[in-house]
Amino acid sequence: MAAGSATMAAISILIGLVVAMAIASAPLAEARAFFVFGDSLVDNGNNNYLVTTARADSPPYGIDFPTRRPTGRFSNGLNIPDFISQNLGSESTLPYLSPELSGQRLLLNIIRMYKQLEYFEQYQRRVTALIGAQNTQQLVNEALILITVGGNDFVNNYYLVPFSARSRQFRLPDYVRYLISEYRKLLMRLYDLGARRVLVTGTGPMGCVPAELAQRSPDGQCSAEIQRAAALYNPQLTQMIGELNNQYGADIFIAANTRQMATDFVRNPQAYGFITSKIACCGQGPYNGLGLCTVASNLCPNRDVYAFWDPFHPSERANGIITQQILTGDTTYMYPMNLSTILALDSRT
Predict the structure, then answer these.
(1) pLDDT classification of 98: cutoffs 50, 70, 90
(2) Residues in a beta bridge with 150
(3) Any catalytic annotation for residue 40?
(4) Mean pLDDT, residues 85-89
(5) Whole-angstrom Cα distance, residue 61 to residue 309?
(6) Using alpha carbons only, what angle is made at residue 239 by residues 114 and 333, rounded to the nearest 5 degrees?
(7) Which residues form the signal peptide (predicted)?
(8) What is the pLDDT of residue 204?
(9) Lowest mean pLDDT: which of 102-106, 258-262, 281-285?
(10) C-alpha pair distances (Å), 139 with each of 21, 124, 125, 214
(11) Which of 12, 40, 85, 315 is catalytic?
(12) What is the dihedral of CA 88, 309, 211, 149, to 10 degrees?
């Protein structure tokens, strides 16, 4: 089992690491930076500037975004970082790879980039040139960071094809432990780079997304095997976060139980105003779960009543429900505290 920098680089690329920054001001917190690390669930448009088939830069993506145009978000409208930014009081976000992001816009908007945490260091050097080393260190120390880890390592790696290389290398429980050990290194590296408030989200109910139903479910039930992976992974992620907080002697890392947040409306969509949590709004094939969302796909007339926008990604409204639990959820959803509590505590320091 290989480990070290090469493995961490592979993991970083695998999850599509992105970094985002937005200066925000809100009643509960003074101006602060907002950084986001994650996969397509939190991408605000870097795919527009990459040679990749994973793109969201054409209709009907963005159909409900304020501009009514595709932005690179894998959503009909806003994603989770957008909703968090709104609650922080920040403006609309820009992808790091956008040519519009330069100069003072590094401070006033968002920075996102793929690949490894070394690029986060590069970002800090860019900001240092604008505001100096001491102010940059303070900006990063006081920042809010969101990191989404795990989902792609299962869906697009371990379970990508039958008898994948990873599934031949690891039994599922061993693979989960391996990922947890790698993500522990990743979070420790974030701490070394100055992170002091980090929201960590694990996987959602991966076996219940329309793409998995279309490929693995003959009866419309969630894939038991992929759900087992989520059930093993998420509690161990929360446990690891608690251990790191004990190690550092502070609540640096906050676990967001997005699996439970999404499971609530997947199991009982009508209670949340959805007509279905099985069929994607945009797609084709069983459950609209096959292929890409394009202008040729089936498209629902009312996106607000669908829990999933495309085969893999929640709708804007579902993203809003998840964000509300991040903000105000009890310890079933947020451990050891929710985001509103974090902002209130930080406003007093």
Answers:
(1) very low
(2) none
(3) yes
(4) 85
(5) 9
(6) 80
(7) 1-20
(8) 94
(9) 102-106
(10) 10, 10, 12, 45
(11) 40
(12) -10
Q: In a 10 Å sphere around its CB, with 0-12 CB exposed, 13-18 middle and 19+ buried, how is residue 193 labelled?
A: middle
Nearest to 255 by CA among 193, 327, 145, 335: 335
Instruction: Give the number of other Cβ atoms within 10 Å of residue 321's Cβ.
Output: 19
- Least Cα distance to 20 among 33, 32, 35 occurs for 35
In the prediction, which pLDDT does 267 show? 97
Confidence of residue 91 (pLDDT cuts 50, 70, 90): low
Q: How far apart are CA 28 and CA 30, in angstroms?
A: 7
The continuous run of DSSP H or E covering 144 comes out as: strand 144-148
Q: Is the pLDDT confidence value at 229 over 80? A: yes
Catalytic residue among 43, 82, 264, 310: 310
- Listed residue (279, 256, 276, 254) closest to 267, CA to CA: 276
DSSP string spanning 296-341?
TSEE-S-GGGBSBSSSSSB-HHHHHHHHHHHHH--TTTEES--HHH
pLDDT of 9 higher than 50: no
Cα–Cα distance between 269 and 235 in angstroms, integer?
A: 24
Kindly state the average pLDDT of the residues 92-108: 45
CB 71 within 8 A of CB 95: no
Report the alpha-carbon distance of residue 7 to residue 298 in Å, rounded: 40
Instruction: Output the CA torsion 166→168→170→175 (10° steps).
Output: 30
Catalytic residue among 12, 297, 313, 315: 313
d(C-alpha 339, C-alpha 331), whole Å: 12
In whole angstroms, give the CA distance from residue 255 to residue 234: 9
Helices (H) and strands (E) in the chain, counts: 13, 9
Mean pLDDT of 37-43: 74
The domains of the chain are located at 5-347
Q: What is the CATH number of domain 5-347?
A: 3.40.50.1110
Active site residue 313: yes
d(CA 213, CA 141): 42
* pTM confidence score: 0.84
